Amino acid sequence: MRFSGQFYRYLKEIWAEDNSQKADTLALENSIENALLLIMAASETAVSLEKGTINCVVEIRHALKNGTITTEQETEFWIAYQVITEAVYPITIDTVRATYERDKDQKPGLFLLSRRKYIPLSRRCASNYKLISILTLSLLIGIQIYWYIGWSIMEDIEIQTQTIEELEKELTAINLQESSTKINDATKNIQHAQIEELVDQIREHREWKNAAFHHLTNWNKTWSSLDLITLQPWQEDAFETYSLAVRRHIEFVAAGNFLAAIVGYVLPILYGMIGACFFILRQLPREIEERTFSINSYIGYNLRMAQGPLAGILVSYFFSADQSNTLQIARNSSELLSLDPSLGSLSSLAIAFLAGYSVEFIFRFLDKALNNPSRDSLSDANSPPPTPASQASVSRKKSEKNIE
User: pTM to 2 decimals?
Assistant: First the structure.
């Protein structure tokens, strides 16, 4: 039993030593492969390397393959590896592997033959973000066209309503003038002709208004069919029992609320998203060309895709219109709003795009907004304390004001 236990420990030590040697050999093999990839990147980017440094890597590669590697060769390799890493910086082994087309079946090592090509992370990242950008842009264009149709219908209804009111005022004024004054037959004929013309115009504008309301009804049914939150009044059976004026009022207010929701929430999110996509599609080719794209860049771009919509919706809270008039909110989407005097006048949706493109822009604005009050309080803190005479003067002025 004692002999078998010692023999077992002996085999265990030999197995552990053998695994340790294999791990050391594999680590050295991977490091040599990394050094060769960096030399390849240096050659492609015109980074000058000394011949002795390259020769050191090539020699240890053949020595490792033949199993004749020495301690001196391994020491010289690690020194050469450090020199190569410093020479090609900011290119690193991570950035090279993220853009390097290697074999799909290739495993760590130097001596496998090429079979199938492996699509690098940079190319897959570019394809994914290109697809996301196209889908986001298509969704943005579709929603904004739909929003514009609804806004133009409501604007036309308001224009027709105002025109009808003005014509009715003119008609009332002519009727009062005809009943309150004595006029001859010629003047009466002229007034009758004016009345008939006004009546025809009022009838024509009412027909246009009815057509616009019919268009608005179809427009409302399109978005209400999605059942986003709750059923709309016109989706209930009792809606048909209401009068025409009540039904039109409900549809008009509901359309205004939906337009305000699109302008206040949906469009800023999409503009922030498209701004983030624009930043990524502009920055990604540059990193791929300079061989600085890595897994960290991929993670950063994913975070940018999340930060863009958040920044866009955050901007909409700073530049929201008066909530008491929903149609006015839709109109204000095209008005010019100023965020920073140095940037001039920009629309709120343009600010949402800038927020998605550059999150630092939002941080700079928030810092400026937060620093102004602190600067005022700091100036108040640095001002000298009031004297008793000044306090008495202020108290006397307050008393006089209360008496008055």
Answer: 0.69
